Amino acid sequence: MENMAAPDILALDIVDITKIYSQWQRTGQVRDILRNLIHPQKKEIKALEGLSLQVRQGEFAAYAGANGAGKSTTIKILSGILKPTSGSVRVLGMDPSVSRLELMRRIGVLFGQRTELWWDQPVLTSFEWKKSVWNIPDSVYKENLDMVTELLDLGELLHTFSRELSLGQRMKADLGMLLLHSPQVLFLDEPTLGLDVLAKRDMITFLKKINKERGVTIVVTSHDMDDLEEMARRIILLDHGHLAFDGSFEELRRVQGGLGRVRVTVSEDAGAGMQELPGLTLEEVKDNVYEYAYNHEKSSMQDILKALSCLSGIEDVELKRAPIEEVIAKLYRSWK
What residues does the ABC transporter domain cover (predicted)? Predict the structure, then answer.
């Protein structure tokens, strides 16, 4: 498969967009029914406010934020489902709200809780339906069908009724269907939601492969930060509709102060003095394994190893980075 990426061309160009929702206010009390009819009240909610960002063709970007940050609203605007209240949006040079039909032939959108598969038909029937309705050329359809069948292991699933698929199997079939028309950009909203470990691994491996080998631009949202770090090279964080961070995962770790972990395994008769060590905060004890958190900007590795060398019964020491979940959770707490 040839890499079709064009890294010098913008796939997404979002300039100062704001999206405001209006909500009717109701008290739910019988005595207020007449007042609500005569003087209805609305509340404005800003899902996005002054958001600007760019994604170049061939990028794999993670798009994250706490619940209500504006992630799904952004994806719906980019795919033409919603129109921004103000600002401008271009996807592959097109305005999604104006050129939605043309744009849909060049992008793919997947929401983790929804499916386009026909419930009471084999998966292959849904694929062939898309080929017919979308007028996908025979050669393109065959090439893409062969690709997704092999890489997503869909062979036995193609002739299985959609209602008989597990969640992981359905997600793979939905992703396969999404790629039949060779989209240049993918918007994936929680694609690994509810998947078991093996299904999640297959999904991540496949997405990284089509990004690298076909140059497909991918923007993915997820609450599983470990998945995002494994998939994407760039992370964009939203906070209440505002752009809060845009950079690499390593840059994000540095911004948060260089959090790290030390895992110490000791012999069964050891343990004295393990509770309090200078520069280390005890996070967890399981059997004979002690896990500590530290900040390498405040505690040098030399000081940490010196403190450990004074203890007896140490069998193993493992150094690792703090989980990205913890790094981002610390940011979320600071935004409240």
Answer: 28-265
